[in-house]
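Escalated from tier 1: nicotinamide-adenine-dinucleotide holo job.
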Amino acid sequence: MTPAASPAALPRSDRPVLVTGAAGFVGSHLCERLIERGHTVIALDDFSTGHADHLKALRRHTRLQFVRHDIAQPLPEGLPACGAIFNLACPASPAHYQRHPVATMLTSTVGTWRLLELARGSGAVFLQASTSEVYGDPQVHPQHESYWGHANPIGPRSCYDEGKRAAEALCYAYQREHGLSVRVARLFNCYGPRLRPGDGRVVSNFIVQALAGRPLTVYGDGRQTRSFCYVSDTVRALLALMDSDWSQPVNIGNPAEHTVLELADRVRALTGSDSPLVFRPLPADDPVRRRPDIGTARSVLHWRPEVALDEGLALTIEYLRERAEPTLAVLHADWHAAPELVRGRTLQAVNRQD
Ligand SMILES: NC(=O)c1ccc[n+]([C@@H]2O[C@H](COP(=O)([O-])OP(=O)(O)OC[C@H]3O[C@@H](n4cnc5c(N)ncnc54)[C@H](O)[C@@H]3O)[C@@H](O)[C@H]2O)c1
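Tier 2 regenerated the structure:
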């Protein structure tokens, strides 16, 4: 294994850094850290699931330039030659990607291809935000990077899972054929401020429901497990990976494994809510167990998560308390239970929020 480079040594740091998906949950936090570190940032997003408010703090910053664009379309002329590209563009919430499966596939395949071409042209180092979903519903536990996964190629999640698997394959095809320098970060559930209240992810769903005094929707019996990584830890890992010269996939997540029921209990305790739980059928292909083996991140990036679940949840609750729109979360929470009934209403609501 090659040791990581020094923390401030982003490749070709004299050149701008391109972040796609910059107005999203993770992307906006990443842009802030990059600006803090002195980089010039080209922030690109089509606002399909992100929001301009997420970049509010940087709006007038002289080292941030925003480009509104869909990466599946030909890239705009005149993008400056970048030293590094972080490709985070892609809807991450199942409610969003299952509503737009074709656009999701094209974002991860055609969009990633366009950005890899851009990286090749400018000699940029390319980091792909991949996902634990490449492991599908894993039969090996915890998941190590060497595990090839157990993904359904045609199910309702396949637009996301297989899109991300194809994106990884494209990265390594460019590495083999063109010698491109690639980084692949397999992110496990990440949470924190800027999760959108109506986004349909389990952490934001539970918090918004608890704050509204509504029942918390649990899919299946709630004994399925997830590992939750606070966003500042995730972003620190993305930067460490880009700083390093490690070109194999790296799991980025918190190995502390919690059942969904435990998460519901923590949220109820931290919000002071006595909301009951309601149980709905487990959606198709929902993974039963999820926990990253982060041995590679520990040894190669000298990284480990630092924010404990209660601490991160408290910060997320504080954020969502000011923004929660209970109706939206309830609609999303019912998504899997009766999509044919709520689909239209849910998306109208999301669009209104945009
Ligand atoms: N948050 C997590 O738990 C998690 C877990 C695994 C992987 N990831 C990956 O990390 C990345 C960021 O996730 P997030 O949680 O911030 O999601 P998000 O939905 O908040 O952000 C994604 C951003 O990408 C933008 N986008 C989507 N399609 C685009 C396109 N075709 N062109 C330009 N912009 C586009 C959206 O508008 C949004 O701002 C995604 O690639 C996601 O797959 C996230």
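Residues 101-122 form the longest helix (22 residues).
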